[in-house]
Amino acid sequence: MADPQVLVVGAGPTGLVLALWLTKAGVAVRIIDKTAGPGTTSRAIVLQARTLEFYRQLGVDRIAIERGIDFKAVNLWIRGGRVGRVPFGNIGEAISPYPYALIFPQDLHEQMLVEQLNLLGVHVERETELVDFTCDGDGVRAELRTKAGEPEVYHAAYLVGCDGAHSTVREKLAVGFPGGTYADTYYVADILGSGPVFDGEMHGALDYADFLAMFPMQGGGRARLVGTVRKKLHHQQDLRWEDVNQSIVRRLKIKVEAVNWFSTYRVHHRVASHFQQGRVFLLGDAAHVHSPVGGQGMNTGIGDAVNLAWKLVAVLRDAAPTSLLETYEPERVAFAQKLVATTDRAFTFVSAHGPLARRVRLRVVPRLLPFLFRFAFFRRLMFRTISQTAIRYPNSPLSQGQVGTVEGGDRLPWVPFKDVTGKMTDNFVPLTSLDWQVHCYGEAAPELKTICETRRLPLHVFSWNSAAAQAGLTQNAAYLVRPDGYIGLVDSGANSANLTAYLERWTG
Ligand SMILES: Cc1cc2nc3c(=O)[nH]c(=O)nc-3n(C[C@H](O)[C@H](O)[C@H](O)COP(=O)(O)OP(=O)(O)OC[C@H]3O[C@@H](n4cnc5c(N)ncnc54)[C@H](O)[C@@H]3O)c2cc1C
Q: Ligand 1 centroid to 18 CA: how many Å?
């Protein structure tokens, strides 16, 4: 490969996925991190279905699934009594090939991504720090401090800041990071223990003034606990497991034998004012931070990485105008702002003090949730929201057309079907090409075949079936699918001029 034209700063999940996509698509990349080694603590532990769909495109979904455990059910406890159980198993059936959420701790997850990059000959340059940078006409001049402590200047066509919440890239760009910080201090602990709640399911417990969430982890007797730190200790440094309120832990009859990792944190909610300035981009926690409610943060960073990766590939290959890169910010900032607002509401509710909030939390929600989960429409709504499969870009300049209920900017609906040998397969299989393609369910119009042949654009024609209809697709319509699995243009199939104009504008 030629000299890397993309410099990725930060080898957290966001930077690693960006580097993996670029490398798989044939773009040389340089990835640096100021730390000596990958993270060794579990931090974000939930992988959402949309992330697994992207991982299937990258050929790593099976590895994650083999190493993770699926999220079977959530149990709700009030003051030591179990008041409800919400089964999650296959909650997203007919929506995604991964109808569940996967528990895959961030240390194991990063290790898997690093392994995959190594297999492709890309190695994270450790103890290498971005110190400063300046932009000129044809690229970015990055000032690095290498492992040996030596200064180095590296000239890249693009600089991508995946350098976390305290981003140097964001600071040097002087991009604002407006938002705020919640008052309470929370703890996270990875423990080894025993008790009736070590049953492979998630448990959420509420008391008058406290909450505890327990997630199962790989390995017998291992679990993640998340809870609040007692108010009077909020400003104390060096808090330990012994300092947290143990009564809620005891009520769940959790016997803690060892605390493998303990950390306290304040929760912030902030979105950067810009995600792009010229040839420099902000992704992941460098661009947005919010409460961990719903396990969205890391998955959103991975979504940013995929969104930008294919656009960089296309522009660097001269297969798209540079204006394609300008669609990254509007597509991702809209989702980040919505996410911060939603998680803010959810988090404010979970952590609110006062008699009314307590009453709703302790009496209404524990009864309402299991009741609502009996209805298929509610289960689907929850899955679509939490799994990130509902993320769409309807207002993007890249999104065009509507046929039936499917619009340009929607994620390509997932359609399972049997192949000629009777084996189950689906319409996401061709997305592993990481390239543009056209899908047609039924018969492709002759003009569509001609355009695809002339432009060497892969045309995938699937038989029309009930699953396609159920997914909202329209028979014989043409769906132009972006490399990241979102629909760029949808057309009834009769208007080839629209498709030609779109391809000329965005694919050169
Ligand atoms: C205690 C804790 C618990 C968490 N729990 C959850 C959870 O339950 N659920 C959830 O969704 N999220 C959780 N998170 C958040 C989650 O870890 C982040 O959302 C995720 O790590 C973001 O990934 P990222 O790649 O964008 O950034 P990061 O993982 O922060 O990676 C940034 C990388 O950039 C490197 N870097 C920074 N500056 C430079 C520089 N100048 N030069 C070179 N390298 C640099 C850093 O060393 C780091 O490796 C938790 C975080 C913490 C700390």
A: 15
Q: Is it the case that residue 1 has pLDDT exceeding 60?
A: no
- Is the pLDDT at 351 greater than 90? The verdict is no
Measured over all CA atoms, what is the biggest interatomic distance in the chain, rounded to whole angstroms? 73
Distance from residue 63's CA to the centre of ligand 1 (Å):
22
Q: Which residues contact 9 (CB under 8 A, 6 or more apart)?
A: 15, 32, 130, 159, 160, 161, 162, 163, 168, 169
Indicate whether residue 293 lines ligand 1 (CB < 6 A): no
State both tokens at 62.
């099976």
* Whether residue 493 has pLDDT greater than 90: no
Among 298, 299, 340, 387, which is best to mutate for testing ligand 1, by the most ligand atoms less than 8 A from CB? 298
Q: Which structural domain, as residue segments, surrounds residue 308?
A: 6-68+104-177+272-344
Q: Are 423 and 468 within one domain?
A: yes
For residue 96, being part of any structural domain is answered with no
CATH code for position 198? 3.30.9.10
Ligand 1 nearest-atom number relative to CA 168? 41
Q: Is the Cβ–Cβ distance between 91 and 100 less than 8 Å?
A: yes
Chain segment 282-341, per-residue pLDDT in tens: 999 999 998 777 788 999 999 999 999 999 999 999 999 999 999 999 999 998 998 888
- 34 in contact with ligand 1, CB cutoff 6 A: yes
| Residue at 113 is within a domain | yes
Mean pLDDT in residue range 217-237: 81
